Amino acid sequence: MTTATPAPPAPASRHAARRAVLRLLRSAGGAVLSVAVICGVWQLLVKGLHMDPFLTRGPLDVWRYLTNPANGAEHALLWQASKTTALDALIGLVGGTLAALVTALAFALWRGVEQTLLPIAMALRAVPLVAMTPLIALIFGRGLLAVTVIAGIVTFFPVLVNVSLALRAVPPASLDLMRAYGASPYATLLRVQFPGALPALFAAMRVAAPLALVGALLAEWLATGKGLGYLMLAAVTTFELDRLWTGVTIVTVASILLYTLISVMEQLTLSRYAPDQARQSL
């Protein structure tokens, strides 16, 4: 006699893919809602406060400017500048995050390194970036390297502080268990402390992403003379206010998109390496 075998359950990968799609849709919906709220408040302020129409533009004005076929040359100019600023901010964000992550891991392994370097880092952070930008441009030139350094500086400190605190906030019971099994400090760091610090890492990146854009704009204003930063500065001096407000809108939307993209990356990474924390963050 043969007995019927029950049908196999749905593979776990299918459920994980479904959860990933839902998280992506939720994040995209949040981004669209954020843009809608900002545009609504912006339009209400422009109309409600009766601002000078010569100096101010509302979201509807920016939309008409962007969709007007007669502004083809302006569109090409804004597109090229936006690509330059996006590349500058992205390189600064990635470079600053990696540098901060390596430094935070070194702090966790060797407390003497933290006691020596952290006060120096905090003292440097207290110096206004506007004051440091000319010096950075003098040392590293007025090219991509200077922009990367400036955008990386504003990214470095929030990531360093948040990840360093998270690496020290691991439950003592987990560390005691690793010691009981004879794990080395490196194994404890990679298997226990680093996975536990992933939410703090992505939270710091969400904060640092708009700062990287600001750093890139500042570098373009004061050092390179390229990108949206320089374009908006030139628009102020020539009173090309449609171009100025459109550049501001592009930077705002880019900040929201970066925040959303990092949130999606966070959920996908936590689902793979820290599923318990991924469920808590939903």
Output the keywords.
single chain, 282 residues, mainly alpha, MetI-like fold, 0% strand, globular
Description:
The chain is mainly alpha-helical and 282 residues long. It has one domain (72-281): MetI-like (MetI-like fold), CATH 1.10.3720. It is built from eleven helices and no strands. Helix 2 packs across helix 10 (241-273), helix 8 packs antiparallel against helix 10 (241-273) and helix 9 (227-238) packs antiparallel against helix 10. The longest helix has 40 residues, at 185-224. The chain starts with 11 loop residues before the first helix and ends with a helix.
- Tell me the radius of gyration: 24 Å
What fraction, in percent, of the residue positions are helical?
over 70%
Distance between the termini: 49 Å
Secondary-structure-derived class = mainly alpha
Q: What is the level-2 CATH architecture name?
A: Orthogonal Bundle
Order of helices and strands: HHHHHHHHHHH
State the low-pLDDT regions, or none: none
Number of domains: 1
The fraction of residues assigned to DSSP E strands is under 5%
Characterize this entry briefly:
With 282 residues, this protein is mainly alpha-helical.
Ordered list of secondary-structure elements with their pairings:
Layout: H1 12-48, H2 59-67, H3 72-109, H4 111-125, H5 129-140, H6 144-168, H7 172-180, H8 185-224, H9 227-238, H10 241-273, H11 275-281
Helix pairs in contact: 1-10, 2-10, 3-4, 3-6, 3-8, 3-9, 3-10, 5-6, 5-8, 6-8, 8-9, 8-10, 9-10, 10-11
